[in-house]
Amino acid sequence: MVQPAVARAFMSDPLATDTGFLSRFLMCEPPSTIGTRMQANTRRDETALEGFAARRRDILDTPMPMDPEIRDLKPRTLGLASQARALLAQFSDAIEAAQAKGGTLAQITGTASKAAEQAARIAGVLTQWRDLHARQVEPGDMADSITLAQFYLSKASRLADAAAVSVEIDRAEALRKWILER
């Protein structure tokens, strides 16, 4: 895990943001829980953990789709149900509009521009987790993935705002030092 100060410094670096590298990550900096992690509050749901482990094991035990002669992977295409495609298009259009000058996502256009792609990838993972043999992403999985993509967009926006403030503070501090030295 990257330390928050390092992540903010990286996010304020124009070279890092302009290349599109950073916008391919789902960024999140949850609030610290230090001071609240009491053992008395710990609840362990064994049924949920066992269910997760069993599903993970089923997926890992499933043979990969492979050409047996040349051992070349032959992954199948996971399509989008028409309603799922419509949800994704609606989300993509809303994100595009929010990137316009003065829009709520204008300061993170690199990340926002990839949000629909991220939502589609997340939907594929949710679909495959639910049913490894599914032929298409269903609207429910797409709606859930859009919710997750929106969550990550809100976190990226908050982190970008914090990074911008850090850059301004760094510049002000450099100016202060220059004035004191001169």
Question: Could you explain the architecture of this structure?
Answer:
It is a single chain. The chain is mostly helical and 182 residues long. The protein has a domain at 75-154. The protein contains seven helices and four strands; from the N terminus they run αααβββαααβα. The strands form two sheets. A two-stranded antiparallel sheet has the order 1-2. Strands 3-4 form a two-stranded parallel ribbon. A hairpin with a 4-residue loop joins strand 1 (66-67) and strand 2. The mean pLDDT is 85.
Give a short summary of the structure:
The chain is mainly alpha-helical. The protein has helices at 4-11, 14-18, 46-61, 82-98, 109-113, 115-130, 139-181, and strands at residues 66-67, 72-73, 79-80, 136-137.
Assign a percent range to the helix content. Answer: 55-70%
Main beta sheet: 2 strands, antiparallel
- The 3D shape can be described as extended
Low-confidence stretches: none
Order of helices and strands: HHHEEEHHHEH
| End-to-end distance | 41 Å
What's the structural blueprint in terms of helices and strands?
Elements: H1 4-11, H2 14-18, H3 46-61, E1 66-67, E2 72-73, E3 79-80, H4 82-98, H5 109-113, H6 115-130, E4 136-137, H7 139-181
Parallel strand pairs: 3-4
Antiparallel strand pairs: 1-2
Helix pairs in contact: 1-7, 4-6, 4-7, 6-7
Jot down its keywords.
single chain; 182 residues; mainly alpha; two-stranded antiparallel ribbon; two-stranded parallel ribbon; 7 helices; 4 strands; 60% helix; extended
